[in-house]
Amino acid sequence: MGVPAFVLVTYIIITILVYFIVTATTEVATYLPIHGGAMSYYGYRYVSRSMGFAMGYLYWYALGILVPYEGKTRLTSLQPP
User: Fold this and answer.
1) Which residue in 15, 21, 43, 51 is deepest, having the highest Cβ count within 10 Å?
2) Taking the model in full, what pTM does it have?
3) pLDDT greater than 80 at residue 14
């Protein structure tokens, strides 16, 4: 069974976009290294205060959701069938 062509093309496009984002982030972090490496500082410095705040808040929110989810998944996967 083959994969439809649009799935392959979409995967390639998303891969290229992620590569560009990671390269740009790495370049900014190399140009201006900071202690702690918080990306919200770069949003604050190069865009606006509100962008830095939003990036910091979203980072905090994502970790607040991710950590309990991983704990629940770990406990669920350890239960016997």
Assistant:
1) 43
2) 0.58
3) yes
